[in-house]
Every structure is written in structure tokens, then in C-alpha cells.
Amino acid sequence: MAKHLWAQVHSESLIDPLANLSRWHKPSCLAAITACYDLGVFQVMANGQGQPQSVTDIESKVGTDVDMLGRLLKHIAAMDYIKETDADTYAPTNFSNALTIPTIGDSYPCFVKGLLPACLHFPAYLTQTNYATPTDVRSGAFQSAFKTEKNMFEYLTAHPPLGQQFNHHMEAKLRYATHLRAIDSDHLLTNRAVVPIPLTTRLDAEPTQHSA
């Protein structure tokens, strides 16, 4: 863990300040990935055994607006999370295939819907409180963002499937984190069967646990 953090800190110091500034795109990409995860897009792509599929083909399996899906996939491909092999045609990557494992993929909706709003709200919260240090655990930036008196764990538990998704994220950190040498990432993706998820499955139901 220490070596991983050391490498991350020092690699950040090598990035040009303007390049770092351009990372504003990351929240929008997180949102696009989460929307496609909710729709089951990455499972459809994984079921194609690595072959490129058109937006129309993918849309026919997930049932959504084809133009909106095309825009989402275009943004995700621009960040290299999937590959655009031809006009409006996409192939999966190791990253997108990994999202079909619930203990990995569930991290996205959990953080985008259950945690990130509090981070984005934090500057406004500080302005509202005149930059005072919070003294009440029931009245912090998280509570202000979500308009609740619950703490984070209580809130996630009270709004399923966020609680289960958070548990999956923590499990993934222990099971698959390569910087902890828990498991080799190539082994993870090449030595497990891709188990199709029924396309009717959505995140309003309990996530299906797949064996790795």
C-alpha cells in the first residue's frame, strides 16, 4: 500500500498543471459510466466476447434511446474506457469487462449517487457556514447535500441498493486490489467465466453476486 501511494503521489507531480486542470471531465465521465452500468451496457458488451458492436445493436438489447446511448458511449470511449473501433461501434476493454463483476462495478453507482454529491456540494456548504469547522456530526456537508440527519452509513443503508453497493466496493478493495497483491488483474479477467446477467436486472434489485 505504501509503495502504491508513493508512486501515485510522485506520478502526480510529473503532470503538467494545465493537464491536471483539464481533469474537470472526470465527473461527467463517471456519470456516463454509471448510466451505462445501470442499463446493463457493459454486460452486453462483455457477452459479445470482445467483438465490436454498434450502438444500435447494444440499444436493441438494453432498450433505451439510441441517440442518448450513442452520446454516452462516445464520451466513455473518448476517455479510453471502451474502444470505438468504427463510427458508432464499440468494443469492450479489460476495464469495462471488470465492471460486470458486481463487487467492482457497483462502486460506480454507489459513489456517483451516494457520495459524490456531498463532495461537489462541499464548497457551497463551507460558504453557507462561513468556513466554520462542523461541530455536529448530524449537520455536515453530507447531511446538507442530501437533506438528511443520517450519517453516511445510515443514509446508504436506508436507500437500497446503495448500502449493498458500498459493501461490494469495500469487498473489491480487499479481494482485487492489485497494489495489495491480492490478485493479479490479468488473472482476474482472463480466468473467470463471464456470467450473463439477465437484461431485466437493474440496480433497483439486489445485485447478483458472481463468483470470480
TrEMBL record:
One protein family per Pfam: Dimerisation
Signal peptide: none
GO MF entries: protein dimerization activity
Domain of life of the source: Eukaryota
Start and end residues of each O-methyltransferase dimerisation domain: 32-100
Protein name according to UniProt: Sterigmatocystin 8-o-methyltransferase
